[in-house]
Design a protein that fits this description.
single chain, alpha/beta, FAD/NAD(P)-binding domain, 6-stranded mixed β-sheet, 16 strands, globular
Length: about 425
């Protein structure tokens, strides 16, 4: 039985570990916190899982919240002309519903499943020396943790990293009691774009206390939406949100009169620099060198503006699991590690980086797509499903010429039908 260690207990690490256990591997998971500590802590993300990632979870028997988590089939998008003017709006429809489950709920349960299914779980924080010792005892060690001392073990790939500073200041809040502008359409996500200021997303989700809404601010650093530098607690954060909504999105502010935070850990703040790192780290020591392979956010860290984090992690775990299984009894060499990541990069990860980079910059031809989406439901639908399958970005959004050709075809089609 081959011995594999997974460091990190998020979407990528736990999904991979559970897949390996199902395949008969001996698995050790190293997690900083226990399941109880995860459930009782601060929210971890603003995840929304799209159809392709959900199908992977379902195939693995890990979509344990279907029927309880809201199934979101559409997004109401509004372009805001400051201050507080709805300049353009349209509905984006997903071919397959999306689903958001509080990562505290999800990963805590998956962590317990690892132990229940015969995996070894160690609760500790690793430094480089401890990671090297762990890797020396296993045939393959996969690092799914991108924080703390281990964040620096994988070298930044400057050629693939589009930014060297954060593009947005981030804050989110899980809430109960937000009203709906059109209850008949629920559950529906809402997205507001404020050019030059940032974006606001409202995502129906399932949290520890039941259905809720997740509010995510994507604020341009230094702008009026970047108003949480002191990181207030959930109650004060909610009060400030109401104030900002009243100025910039008054129609949204009207829906927040009865809102309240879901729990004491409902708020989250941060700023991240979108980064791609090289997939293999070498750890030297007295017993010689060992190599470890990265996965998920440890290697490809995207701004959450396109919702790719958990989706990309799920697809990475699936790709790595298939590669490990296909490798049979052969040694997990650095060359194999590089090849495994490069295959995933070509097939998926590069598209998430390109799509996210474009949405952060919003070039002129992409702004034109949003205008066309308001006039043509087919454009709005394709845009929605590019979030679910970012590889489609290359086919119609990556270059102005491709976008123009597609929009012309849609316009001609509409003219032919009239």
């Amino acid at each position: 039985m081959r011995r594999i260690a997974v460091v990190g207990a998020g979407q990528a690490g736990l999904q991979l570990a559970l897949g390996l256990l199902a395949g008969g591997y001996e698995v050790t998971v190293v997690a900083e916190r226990t399941a109880a500590q995860v459930r009782g802590g601060r929210v971890l993300s603003t995840q929304a899982m799209f159809g392709p990632a959900l199908r992977i979870e379902r195939a693995a028997g890990l979509d344990l919240w279907a029927g309880r988590a809201p199934a979101v089939s559409s997004v109401r998008s509004v372009l805001v002309a400051p201050p507080g003017v709805r300049a353009l709006e349209f509905t984006m429809t997903l071919d397959d519903p999306a689903q958001s489950v509080d990562q505290r709920l999800k990963t805590a349960h998956w962590l317990e499943l690892v132990a229940e299914r015969g995996g070894r779980v160690e609760h500790r924080t690793l430094d480089r020396a401890a990671l090297r010792e762990l890797a020396g005892r296993h045939e393959l060690t996969v690092v799914a943790a991108g924080r703390g001392e281990l964040a620096g073990i994988f070298e930044r790939d400057a050629r693939r990293s589009p930014h060297d500073v954060p593009q947005r200041s981030l804050s989110c809040l899980y809430v109960h009691g937000v009203g709906s502008p059109d209850p008949a359409t629920e559950p529906r996500a809402r997205m507001h774009a404020l050019p030059g200021l940032g974006e606001l997303y409202l995502q129906p989700a399932l949290t520890l206390s039941g259905p809720c809404e997740i509010l995510l601010w994507e604020a341009v650093p230094g702008g009026p939406l970047d108003c949480f530098p002191d990181r207030p607690g959930p109650a004060a954060q909610l009060a400030r949100i109401r104030e900002v909504l009243g100025v910039h999105l008054p129609w949204e502010a009207e829906l927040w009169g009865s809102a309240e935070p879901t729990d004491a850990g409902a708020g989250l703040y941060g700023a991240l620099t979108p980064t791609v790192r090289r997939p293999v780290a070498r750890l030297d020591g007295s017993g010689g060198e060992v190599h470890v392979l990265g996965i998920g956010d440890a290697l490809v860290l995207n701004d959450p503006i396109t919702g790719q984090g958990a989706n990309s992690a799920a697809r990475a775990a699936d790709a790595y699991l298939r590669a490990i299984t296909a490798h049979g009894g052969e040694p997990f060499t650095p060359a194999w590690m590089h090849a495994t990541f490069e295959r995933f990069w070509r097939e998926h990860a590069r598209h998430t980086v390109d799509f996210t980079t474009a949405m952060l910059a919003m070039p002129e031809h992409l702004r034109g797509v949003f205008g066309a989406a308001a006039a043509h439901p087919a454009v709005a639908r394709r845009l929605a499903n590019t979030y679910a399958e970012p590889a489609d970005h290359a086919a119609w959004l990556a270059a102005p010429e491709s976008t123009a050709a597609y929009l012309a075809s849609v316009g001609q089609g509409a003219a032919d039908r009239s």
